[in-house]
Amino acid sequence: MRADDLGEPRAGQVDWAPIAEALPEGLERLADRATELSAFGLDRRMQAVVGALQRIDWQTGRLLATLFKHRLHRLLGFPTTAAYVHERLGMSPRKARALVALDRKSSDTPALTAAYREGELSWLRGLAILPVTSDRTAAAWIMRARSVTVRRLVDEVDRRHPSVRGTMRAVMAQLRAASRPRPCGLAASAPASRPVFARDGWRCAVPACTARRNLHDHHLLYRSRGGGNARDNRITVCAWHHLRGIHQGRVRAWGTAPDVVTWELGARPGCEPLLRLRGDEYVHQ
After folding, report:
1. What is the mean pLDDT of each run of 10 residues along the chain (285 residues)?
2. Do residues 159 and 80 touch, judged by C-beta distance below 8 A?
3. Model-level pTM?
């Protein structure tokens, strides 16, 4: 039986024009991006890789949109698009659907398309602001998406536009955040810490961390240095960031909890930290 007998498009019936611009160009030489043999040099090289991957996500979405539209997976011998994506591409069907949705819907907002296409926004950040972005608001939302962590971005969109919570749940599912608070660790054995954990949403306050287990009650100004027990000097952090980050000097935090806390990640003596944030907002160095 021929493919066209099954209602499938023949090669001549597929419009390939939309994907012509998605053909990848050669990636820049990563060796030129970092010469320092250290974790920080590796990070700079990784940032170049991530920028390339973000552009490839746009290209992948463009290619998948054509495959989905014409049901080309059947001509390739796969019963569903999910089966093709999983078996052939090694990609989760959820991400594939998100890339296609972003490719289709972002075309109505040229500024969002351009930022996503050039690798300035990850597909997760693009997906987060997609439901609330218009020609009038695109510039502001793109700037915000580049200024804060994904966690903060999702919270802001969800709070300002409750009607898009379905999309926000999909984004958070990709981040593998828990759907509800699950207090563990010190939460069960230290009742005095519960108000602090509840105020911070029962999750680690370190930017970009979504941990909700093994929570510790950290004093921003150590008690050994005169810090008090008031709640504005206490913040929720996960065990890993508390013991391996803060107390080993890799993470620094100071200020007034919960909203005026400055975080430095990747701290090292005599040098600028890898990242500096105030709350969940990046402070450009």
Report:
1. 46 62 54 59 78 87 92 88 93 92 89 90 90 90 92 84 61 49 43 91 89 92 92 95 92 94 91 90 82
2. no
3. 0.69
Cα–Cα distance, 219 to 209 (Å, whole number): 18
**Residue 263: which H helix or E strand, with range?**
strand 260-265
DSSP characters over 48-113: HHHHHHHHHHHHHHHHHHHHHHHTHHHHTT-SSHHHHIIIII---HHHHHHHHHHHHHGGG-HHHH
Find all residues with CB under 8 Å of 152, minimum gap 6, and list them.
207, 279, 280, 281
Dist CA 62 CA 100 (whole Å) = 7
**Alpha carbon separation from 150 to 65, 170, 174 (Å, rounded):** 25, 13, 11
| Residue the block writes with tokens 């939302």 | 141
Q: Write down the pLDDT at residue 182.
A: 42
* DSSP structure string for 161-183: -GGGHHHHHHHHHHHT--SS---
**Cβ-based neighbours of 53, under 8 Å, separated by 6 or more:** none
pLDDT at 6: 44
* CA dist., res. 273 & res. 108, Å (int): 39
Looking at residue 268, the DSSP 8-state letter turns out to be -
Which CB contacts under 8 angstroms, 24+ apart, belong to 158-165? 160/132, 161/131, 161/132, 163/131, 164/131, 164/132
CB atoms within 10 A of CB 112: 25
